[in-house]
Design brief:
Elements lengths: L4 E2 L26 E3 L5 E3 L6 H12 L7 H9 L14 H15 L3 E3 L14 E4 L8 H12 L4 E2 H9 L15 H11 L6 E5 L2 E5 L6 H15 L19 H14 L3 H5 L4 H17 L18 H12 L3 H15 L3 E2 L1
Antiparallel strand pairs: 1-9, 2-3, 4-5, 5-6, 7-8
Helix pairs in contact: 2-3, 2-6, 2-8, 3-4, 3-5, 3-8, 3-12, 7-8, 8-10, 8-12
Length: 346
């Protein structure tokens, strides 16, 4: 069994984060009238919130996959039949917090503070702010977003990952830790019909486990990572439910998925069926991707193993198509930078 993969620890962090943007709400009527013979009229009015219309318009331009990045990485780490993660994996909890920051960035909720002085600092030490406090519908994302939005000061990317992980000596912010993240993600996957809940006896105690109920999403996620890390050209295969062709930032999301699997030390689960040479090349390519996308602007550094040669070009195309927000992309690169600084063992 290869010792390749990534295991703790990450880079250092800097100072503060959270800003708010208010949203107005109002109501209006839509409907028609019927004039009766006696001259009276009946009007049927439907009240609506303009903010809802705004959200619908935004969603039509930016489609999100059914599963979040955190859920996809958790799926890769789960044992299919047993329904639990390896007891020896102490990396996944920290990586999941980084993926929460990534998911919020992809959904247009947070970005770097727009200050020209930020470029004097390393990406993980640059400050982030909330630019859209509307709910996402995902409990963990909404909880993290509320913390970022309500914090009186701006904190850095690495600060927020530490705080959400509970790794802080600041007693005033110890309550920022997101608790039971893995269990809550698993329950979310149960609600989405991907997992099911069972009780398993572990000698001295009973524990809830979550075996695979629908193997399709895990198979799709696994194939996407394998294609990224083993094929000469990376071509995404879509499905109508979990990862549609309308998904925004498809290639960049796939890159973050692979980087998240590296940081969570679960990439071995994806590559286990490959021969030694293919698996070794896949780990090399994963490290190349971590290196290539851990800084912004992204730079094409090629591939030493002739894998994913079209990746940089595809990312460039989708950034032009989905809208190139430099401040958002800096957040993406900053989290990948944190992942790349977790000690690598190859």
């Amino acid at each position: 069994m290869s010792s390749s993969g990534l295991s703790r620890r990450r880079g250092a962090g800097g100072g503060g984060g959270g800003g708010t943007i208010g949203s107005g709400a109002g109501s209006s009527g839509l409907g028609g009238s019927n004039n009766n013979d006696d001259g009276s009229s009946n009007q049927h009015k439907i009240a609506y919130d303009p903010q809802d219309l705004k959200d619908d318009a935004y969603s039509s331009r930016n489609s999100y996959p059914l599963l979040t990045l955190m859920e996809e990485v958790l799926l890769i780490g789960l044992k299919d039949k047993e329904g639990y993660l390896s007891f020896w994996n102490d990396n996944i909890s920290y990586a999941l917090r980084g993926l929460i920051i990534l998911e919020l960035a992809f959904r247009g909720k947070i970005r770097m503070v727009n200050d020209s002085a930020r470029k004097r600092f390393e990406l993980p030490d640059r400050l982030i702010e909330c630019i859209d406090g509307s709910l996402t519908g995902e409990t963990l994302l909404d909880e993290a977003l509320k913390l970022i939005k309500s914090d009186p000061q701006h904190l850095s990317v690495s600060n927020w990952i530490d705080l959400l992980s509970g790794e802080t000596w600041n007693l005033m912010k110890i309550n920022y830790q997101l608790k039971q993240v893995r269990e809550r993600l698993a329950k979310g996957l149960v609600d989405k019909g991907v997992l099911k809940t069972e009780r398993k006896n572990f000698l001295l105690f009973d524990m809830a486990t979550h075996p695979i109920q629908d193997p399709t999403p895990k198979r799709n996620v696994t194939n996407r990572i394998l294609t990224l890390l083993t094929n000469r050209n990376f071509i995404i295969e879509y499905d109508e439910k979990y990862f549609t062709q309308q998904t925004s930032y498809q290639y960049l999301r796939s890159i973050c998925l692979a980087c998240g699997c590296c940081a969570a030390n679960v990439l071995e689960n994806v590559l286990v069926d490959l021969n030694f040479e293919s698996r070794d090349n896949a780990f090399i390519r994963a490290d190349e991707i971590l290196n290539q996308f851990s800084d912004y602007p992204f730079v094409d550094k090629g591939s030493a193993v002739n894998v994913g040669l079209n990746l940089y070009g595809e990312v460039e195309k989708e950034l032009e198509k989905d809208g190139n927000s430099d401040l958002m992309l800096e957040v993406v690169a900053a989290v990948i930078n944190v992942f790349s600084k977790m000690d690598s063992i190859i």
